[in-house]
Amino acid sequence: MDSNNFSRSQKLLDISQRLRQSTSLTPHSNDQLYQSQTHKKPNRSAVLICLFEEGDEIYVILTKRSSKLSSYSGHVSLPGGRTDEGDADDIRTALREAEEEIGLDPALVDVVTVLEPFVTKENVTVVPVLGILWNKQAFNPVLNADEVESIFYAPLEMFLKDENRRHEDREFQGDKYVLHYFDFKANNMVYVIWALTAGILISTASLVYQRPPEFEPRMPKFWKKNYSRF
After folding, report:
1. Which run of H or of E encompasses 26?
2. What average pLDDT does range 143-148 have in this prediction?
3. How many helices (H) and strands (E) does the chain have?
4. How confident is the model at residue 65 (pLDDT cuts 50, 70, 90)?
5. CA contacts within 13 A on the Cβ side of 77
6. Which residue of 14, 114, 147, 219 lies most exposed, with the fewest beta carbons within 10 A?
């Protein structure tokens, strides 16, 4: 396919321009100590928030993890994974993992920004990398069956709406927070997007659409420990 035989979404162009100008969204990008000491830690990973437009709606690429995996088997997640020794930075980690998991060519992804990290209860730092897939037709998914059971696309704006959302009150070390569950039908299945993946997408949707969700997020404080913004 001719890579030039497509038109870029004006909506995504405006979003990418705005986010690129917001330098505060790329924390530590010029911090050499961060790059040398933090990125190489074994308890670090990166995920790719890959957006594209279809029918005037912005979608995000999501996967259902294989039931063969030892951790988070069968969970819905963003493409991504642990940092490898050879990864130059978090962007490389996210793009490499997306290529390994779903066959997404890194050359198709226009990386816009790196968002502030999240920290899991197990003390794993997860760095969201936001990119745009301008030419969706050029992407032909090839799933790694050992890691991914299926792939689907969810509208990003759904993570700001109270529709198809459930929640559960939790507490950890005195911090009372809410876990959000979003039910989404695709591929004749109902996928449940929850926990950290839901939290990342709520934050991303708020950033992209420049408005808060219709519900109170009340996310876990430990997700943002040691970082400047909650």
Report:
1. none
2. 94
3. 4, 11
4. confident
5. 25
6. 14
Reduce the DSSP state of residue 115 to 3 states and report it. coil
Residue 164's CB is within 10 A of a number of other CB atoms, namely 13
Paired sense of beta strands 165-172 and 125-133, if any:
unpaired
Amino acid 224: pLDDT: 86
Which pLDDT value is given to residue 74?
Answer: 75
Closest by Cα among 158, 156, 209, 206 to 15: 209
**Residues contacting residue 96 through CB under 8 Å, at least 6 positions apart:** 84, 87, 106
Non-local (6+) Cβ contacts of 108 within 8 A are: 133, 134, 135, 138, 139
Widest CA span of the chain, in angstroms?
Answer: 56
Using CA of residue 79, residue 84, residue 88, residue 90, what is the dihedral sign?
A: positive
Nearest to 68 by CA among 128, 119, 143: 143
The β-bridge partners of 47 are 80, 128
Residue type, position 73, single letter? S
Residue 166's Cα: distance from chain center in Å?
20
The CA-CA-CA angle for residues 116, 118, 121, to 5°, reads 165
